[in-house]
Amino acid sequence: MLSGQNGKKFSPFAVKNNQVFIREGFIQDATIGSAQIKEAAITNTKIGGPLQSTNWAAGRSGWKIEKAGHAEFNDATFRGTIYATDGWFKGTVSADKIE
């Protein structure tokens, strides 16, 4: 299949070793079961379920962010202001000021 105008024909895609290479494409709506995207630049997305690491195990490893906003991180560093209604700490807590 060829495309182009004024004698400047090109192939918009090629098949090589059972792989399809597409020069450029626009997909209005798609369902993808699994993907490997190198250096992805995503400007907007809708996520219908939880977003989680492949090694997530509740209370043990990885991280998970639920659609409703609940999140769990195995090990994290947060900078800035954190607002919470309640919570608990296990281990050492250091603070410059407690009100």
What structural keywords apply?
99 residues; mainly beta; 3-stranded antiparallel β-sheet; two-stranded antiparallel sheet
Task: Describe the fold and architecture.
- The chain is mostly beta strands and 99 residues long.
- The protein has a domain at 46-85.
- The protein has strands at residues 3-5, 8-10, 13-16, 19-22, 51-52, 63-65, 71-73.
- A three-stranded antiparallel sheet has the order 5-6-7, with no helix packed on it. It has a two-stranded antiparallel ribbon with strand order 1-2.
- The protein is elongated, with a radius of gyration of 23 Å.
- 0% of the residues are buried.
Give the helices and strands, then pairings.
Layout: E1 3-5, E2 8-10, E3 13-16, E4 19-22, E5 51-52, E6 63-65, E7 71-73
Antiparallel strand pairs: 1-2, 3-4, 5-6, 6-7
Mean pLDDT: 87
Uncertain spans: none
Shape: elongated
Oligomer: single chain
Strand content: 15-25%
Strands in their spatial order, largest beta sheet:
5-6-7
> Roughly how much helix do the residues carry, as a percent range?
under 10%
**Over the alpha carbons, how many angstroms does the gyration radius reach?**
23 Å
Structure classification = mainly beta
List the total number of helices.
Answer: 0
Instruction: Please provide the ordered H/E string of secondary-structure elements.
Output: EEEEEEE
Sheet of most strands: 3 strands, antiparallel
- Tell me the number of strands: 7
Distance between the termini: 71 Å
